[in-house]
Amino acid sequence: YRTNGTCQSPRIPGIGWSYFGADPEEGYRQAKQLTIELEAALACFDVKVTSLIQSSLEVVPRNLHKGLLIKPLLEKVMNRRGGRLPGFLMVCGDDPSDDKMVETVYEVLGAASPSAGLNACRTFSTCVGKRNCPAQYYVNDVEDVKSLLTSLAEAATTAIPCPPATASSSSTAPATPGYVSPAAGRARGVSEATLVDVVGLHL
Question: Name one GO molecular function term (predicted).
């Protein structure tokens, strides 16, 4: 039995089934039934059935998430800088699969030693779209992301001095992100030197 308007597609970490083009009620009903059947059939495997993107199901490895990528990447950057954190760090994502990446960033920052330069690390975690997530800020859409990055680049070109940052004793960010306008990068001020070691991810 095939639901009209649906399709399956291979993904990098697994396989996905989309019902975006189906009748909303029928697609949702079939998705619930498929979830039950897949969980029963795959119970002995180390995978999970999840809905990371609207109107879709994915079968992915249970313990695979983007946080596993960002941690060694940050460690590599710190090793190149003699154990110090980068001067500027931005993590941006648009779906729940990015939450682990954001959480891992704050775990790394929370575990950093005083000599790692936490006070000098300007960190921005941004969610695309407004929803409950670990990010500090949110923007409305991808166009806002582009405008924000443009503003940061312009601020770097003008070499505006960075105000001193305050170290946080918590390794987690606020649960409800605050809106950051596309021009916020210019207003906050990011010097050209701090952008030399930028780690910007939008996966």
Answer: trehalose-phosphatase activity
- % helix / strand / coil in the chain, to the nearest 5? 40, 20, 40
**Single pTM value for the model:** 0.58
Which residue range is the domain that position 82 belongs to? 67-201
Could you give the angle at which helices 99-111 and 67-80 cross, rounded to 10 degrees? 40
Query: Is 80 exceeded by the pLDDT of residue 86?
Result: yes
pLDDT at residue 178 in the model: 56
Q: What's the confidence (pLDDT) of residue 184?
A: 47
Residue 1 in any domain: the answer is no
Number of domains in the chain: 2
CA–CA distance, 5 with 16 (Å, rounded to integer): 14
> Tens digit of pLDDT for each residue in 91-120?
888 877 788 889 999 888 888 888 888 777
Locus of tokens 């249970």: 62
Neighbours of 123 (CB within 10 A): 19
Q: Are 24 and 7 in contact (CB under 8 A)?
A: no
Pair 48, 90 in one domain: no
Tokens for 115? 């000599």
Q: Which of 101, 182, 175, 178 is nearest to 141 (CA)?
A: 182
Which H or E element spans position 35? helix 24-41
Instruction: Mark 126-138 as b/e (b = at least 16 C-beta within 10 Å).
Output: bbbeeeebbbbbb
